[in-house]
Specification:
- This is APC family permease.
- InterPro entries: AA-permease/SLC12A_dom, APC_superfamily.
- It holds the Pfam family AA_permease.
- Keywords: Membrane, Transmembrane, Transmembrane helix.
- Its main location: membrane.
- By secondary structure, the protein is an all-alpha fold.
- 75% of the residues lie in helices and 0% in strands.
- α2 crosses α10 (223-253), α3 (44-66) crosses α16 (397-420) and α5 (85-122) runs antiparallel to α15.
- The protein is globular, with a radius of gyration of 22 Å.
């Protein structure tokens, strides 16, 4: 018998740690939130709450679907179940591109963060790409190990990066901020402004990867309960944590001064606060934790990509060997090896081309992935009510119609904002932005063409797509809330 993924291995906390680690809270709050504050002002904390609320509504239909479609393909499987095989195959191709783009681009951030940190602390200047290539090897090794090893490692790293931010927040609160504490960031006058749409672009991008809970279905304990709980915990934690820490960052400088401070040094804004409120030693620790935060995110996405690759290889859309599981570690090791080789090639290409690790490798490679994942969320939200109209079920209208429709509208708005304000994310020329966004419809067309080819040339494979039976109704009723 062929080795399989280790069933019943991951609990709710394990999966939540995978998802929260993928979002990289320290990287978002220290590296991206200052730019959001610069663009949108003191209403930034509210933007994270709004994005979290929309994604919570999305999670209602998403997690309900997870109890009925017993397939580790997540986005692909749900789109296939609701919108048909061609749309499902297109979603599979788009998801593979998107997850890989988000993950591989982050090696640029790892490289530049490690280079600057080591140079600052040790006075040694090693080119960024050596750190990035070492990161590829470390992520491959950790992904090759058992999923329990990955869960424990990510839990430790995520607690450390969250802890340093909480330490800063507590110090700011105890000292009363720069000029006293206030809640003006949550006042309507600062929430609903001309900058709100720009803020939401940053806010929605900060949650990327939260939906990957469903990819771990095969390894979860009691997945009908575990997947929904982990999803709600992840999106709830991220929304509240992002908002709270962003608010304390603003309080640390003062409402009237924070944008000027961000304009002067956005990349160093949070580190300047750490120096001021706690001390230089804590700032050095934060620099090191930025590196570990990025590594944790890389590993979380790597694990998700490997399991996604296995799921669609099991379906016959990729070579069957990519579904192979290591008999000792229980990891999809061939999929992991392929993902690591792809990462190695991309990092090496950017290094040999003399391109910038942040502006080019991170931003250019990440952008189509972020846009692709939001489009997939729109497709899933649309697929949910269509699917539940076709089957017998005992779910209420809120879960199967109202929440998915609201989520589709909210996510479509987020997608529109991202595309129309893509320059906020990339800082690139119009030509570059058109190419980056254009990769998303290109993947959709490629997937649709693959579906037509499978239907014509491999009809048995085409007929099996999304074939796993729905979860029994008894199990679905058991976990209804």
């Amino acid at each position: 018998m062929e080795p399989q993924l280790r069933r019943g291995t991951l609990g709710t906390g394990d999966i939540a740690f995978f998802v929260i680690s993928a979002a990289a809270p320290l990287m978002i709050l220290a590296g991206v939130a200052p730019y959001a504050i610069l663009v949108g002002g003191i209403g930034t904390p509210s933007a994270y709450l709004i994005a979290g609320l929309v994604l919570t509504v999305f999670a209602v239909g998403f997690t309900t679907m997870s109890r009925y479609v017993s397939n580790g393909g997540a986005f692909y499987a749900y789109v296939r179940a609701g919108l048909g095989r061609p749309a499902g195959v297109a979603a599979a191709v788009l998801a593979l591109m998107s997850y890989n783009a988000v993950q591989i681009g982050m090696y640029g951030l790892l490289g530049i963060s490690a280079q600057s940190t080591v140079q600052s602390l040790a006075g040694v200047d090693i080119p960024w790409y050596w750190y990035a290539l070492a990161g590829v090897g470390l992520v491959w090794f950790a992904g090759y190990r058992s999923i329990q090893f990955g869960a424990k490692l990510l839990a430790a790293l995520m607690i450390a990066e969250s802890g340093i931010l909480v330490l800063l927040a507590v110090a700011i609160l105890l000292k009363g901020g720069a000029h006293g504490l206030d809640l003006r960031s949550y006042a309507p006058a600062h929430v609903f402004t001309g900058a709100t749409s720009s803020l939401l672009v940053f806010a929605f991008a900060a949650f990327m990867g939260f939906e990957s809970t469903a990819i771990y279905r095969s390894e979860a304990r009691d997945p009908a309960r575990t997947i929904p709980r982990a999803t709600y915990i992840a999106v709830g934690f991220l929304g509240l944590f992002y908002s709270f820490i962003a608010w304390t960052i603003i309080q640390g400088f003062g409402d009237a001064q924070v944008q000027a401070a961000a304009a002067k040094d956005p990349a160093g804004l949070v580190f300047t606060e750490m120096d001021s409120y706690i001390g230089h030693g804590a700032t050095d620790v934060m620099h090191l934790l930025i590196i570990s935060s990025t590594l944790a995110s890389l590993l979380a996405f790597h694990n998700a990509i490997n399991r996604y690759t296995k799921a669609i290889a099991d379906e016959g859309m990729l070579p069957a060997r990519l579904a192979a599981v290591h008999p000792r570690t229980g990891a999809p090791y061939l999929a992991g090896g392929l993902q690591s080789v792809l990462s190695l090639v991309v990092v090496a290409a950017f290094a040999l081309g003399g391109l910038d690790p942040y502006l080019n490798l991170l931003i250019w490679v990440n952008t189509p992935g972020v846009v692709g994942l939001v489009l997939l969320q729109v497709l899933v939200a649309v697929a949910v009510p269509v699917y539940f109209r076709r089957i017998d079920h005992t779910e209420g209208r809120w879960r199967t119609l109202v929440a998915p429709v609201l989520a589709a509208l909210g996510m479509a708005t987020a997608l529109y904002l991202m595309i129309t304000k893509i320059a906020l994310l990339t800082g690139a020329s119009d030509t570059v932005n058109v190419v980056l966004v254009g990769l998303v419809p290109a993947m959709i067309i490629t997937g649709a063409a693959l579906a037509l080819w499978l239907r014509a040339k491999r009809p048995q494979v085409y007929a099996r797509l999304g074939a796993p039976a729905p979860v029994p109704a008894e199990e679905a009723r058991l976990v209804r809330s």
